[in-house]
Each structure stands twice: as structure tokens, then as C-alpha cells.
Design brief:
Layout (H helix, E strand, L loop, with lengths): L11 H9 L4 E5 L3 H9 L4 E4 L3 H4 L11 H14 L4 E5 L9 H15 L3 E3 L7 H9 L4 E6 L5 H4 L9 H17 L3 E5 L3 H10 L4 E4 L7 E4 L1 H4 L17 H17 L11
Parallel strand pairs: 1-2, 1-8, 2-3, 3-4, 4-5, 5-6, 6-7, 7-8
The structure holds 3-methyl-2-oxobutanoic acid (KIV).
């Protein structure tokens, strides 16, 4: 008799229940099939196909250049691997800021062509109409406030946001608005821990922090950063769980040496 173990898919409802019972939510990025399979198997609740793919997969300086087609390619690879995790995909820069119809069309393309379970958009009040329209089509939406990397040229730096009261108040208002519209969660990026705590306690939907302290309802990191694949990226908020750069470099230079020394393949490794 074969024992088939059912894997229960994480849904936006389960994510909400996790906040309600005080269970922290673990979110990580992934952009390809092999990495997403490992992330999923390790028990991550939400896989974010982030537009950080523009940085870590394509080598761009910012998230701005990645296209909707490229995001769909990454997302469909991740969806094929994710058996348990909820898969959320970033709407890339330029695919939703024009108007709400364009935003809806972009979200529909992501859902239809990748099979993902929801989308994430950066911004608050200014994108309310787009968020409403996407939600009205039955597509789950996650918000993203604080340091929103698609606005890097407006900010000028990647330093902590909302330290001043006016920006903190806008963030509080934006979080409340995203909840009112029907978002299932909101990412809070690089804001003071005290503000993230206040927002997390004032809204019922889960907050997922990155550089926003321990009181968020969940945490997210970019997989390349937490595995130490990127050399020299060591912001204060980042905990590195491995040094894959060193491990991979050692393995690959070992291979190069073996080939040069005519030691690979040996007699047992050939036909
Ligand atoms: O694109 C991304 O990886 C993100 C996370 C940093 C939240 O938006």
C-alpha cells in the first residue's frame, strides 16, 4: 500500500489565522524552480517572487528594469515547484502606475500565465484605485510600505524611511487604507521597529517586516542575502544563515583544478 501524504496549501485565510493566533509568518523570495522547491520543502509559508529578481538574478542596480514578461517567467518556474507555500508575485515598475485598468491587466496576466496566488504592489493611497480594481477581480493583494525600492530615485538612498512624523503618519494612514480596501497583508520595509509595532497592532491584517523589527506578524528576506550568495551585502537587518558564496566558490574552484589536473573524470566516472 502506498501512503500518499496530502500537502495542505497555505492560503490567505491561513495567513490571517496565523496572525490571529500569534503564529509568526515566514516569507522568503525565490525566482526559479530549484530554489523554490528547497524553500517550499523547508516550510516557508509565503514565497515572494520579488522584483528583487532584477538585482539578484539579472544584475541590475535597481528593481526598475525588470519587465512583466520576465516576472511571469520567474513566477511560473516558482509555481511549478511550490507544493505548500502561497506564491505572491510583485507587479513590476511600470506595469501598474499608469492607471487602474493597466494595473488590473498586469495582475490578470500574472495570475493567468504563471498560476501564482496573488500579487504585491508598492504604495498606499496613491494606488488605492488600482488595488480596489484588482481585488474586485478576485485577486489577493499584498501591500508594500516604507522603503519601496521602485521609488528609489525619489528617495535617493536606501536608508530607513518614516523616521519623521509626517512620513510615519502617512504610513499609518496607508496601512489602514490597504486594510480597508481588502489587502490580505502588507510588507513593511526598513522602518523604525516602534512604528512597525504600532502599525502591526493597529491593523487586523498581517504585517511582514524586512528591516522593521521583531513585532511584525512575519518576516521576509531575499534568499540570496540570507544564504550569503551575495558577497559584501551586510545591512544591519540581515541575518546570514549560510555562506553559500564561500561554499560554491570552493566547490567550483575544486572542479576547475580537477579538470586542469586531468583528475576529473577518472576511470570510475566514465563509460
Ligand atoms: O522584491 C522583493 O524581494 C521585495 C522584498 C524585499 C519584500 O519586495
Amino acid at each position: 500500500m502506498s501512503v500518499h501524504k496530502e500537502v495542505k496549501r497555505v492560503t490567505t485565510h491561513i495567513i490571517q489565522e496565523m496572525k490571529n493566533r500569534g503564529e509568526k509568518i515566514a516569507m522568503l523570495t525565490a525566482y526559479d524552480y530549484s530554489m523554490a522547491a528547497i524553500v517550499d520543502e523547508a516550510g516557508v509559508d509565503i514565497i515572494l517572487v520579488g522584483d528583487s529578481a532584477s538585482n539578484v538574478m539579472a544584475g541590475h542596480e535597481t528593481t526598475l528594469p525588470i519587465t512583466l514578461d520576465q516576472m511571469i517567467y520567474h513566477a511560473s518556474s516558482v509555481v511549478r515547484a511550490a507544493k505548500r507555500a502561497l506564491v505572491i508575485v510583485d507587479l513590476p515598475f511600470g506595469s501598474y502606475q499608469g492607471n487602474s485598468k493597466e494595473a488590473l491587466n498586469s495582475a490578470i496576466r500574472i495570475m493567468k500565465e504563471s498560476g501564482a496566488h496573488g500579487v504585491k504592489l508598492e504604495g498606499g493611497l496613491e494606488i488605492a484605485e488600482s488595488v480596489s480594481r484588482i481585488l474586485a477581480a478576485g485577486i489577493p493583494v499584498m501591500g508594500h510600505l516604507g522603503l519601496t525600492p521602485q521609488s528609489i530615485y525619489k528617495f535617493g538612498t536606501y536608508t530607513v524611511r518614516a523616521k519623521e512624523e509626517a512620513e510615519a503618519q502617512k504610513l499609518r494612514d496607508d496601512a489602514a487604507k490597504l486594510q480597508e480596501l481588502g489587502c490580505f497583508g502588507v510588507v513593511l520595509e526598513k522602518i523604525p521597529a516602534a512604528l512597525a509595532k504600532e502599525v502591526s497592532e493597529s491593523i487586523a491584517i498581517p504585517t511582514i517586516g524586512i528591516g522593521a523589527g521583531q513585532h511584525c506578524d512575519g518576516q521576509v528576506l531575499v534568499i540570496h542575502d540570507m544564504l550569503g550568495i551575495n558577497k559584501g551585502f551586510t545591512p544591519r537587518f540581515l541575518r546570514q544563515y549560510a555562506n553559500l558564496h564561500y561554499i560554491m566558490n570552493t566547490a567550483i574552484s575544486g572542479y576547475v583544478n580537477d579538470v586542469k589536473a586531468k583528475d576529473f573524470p577518472n576511470e570510475k566516472e566514465q563509460y
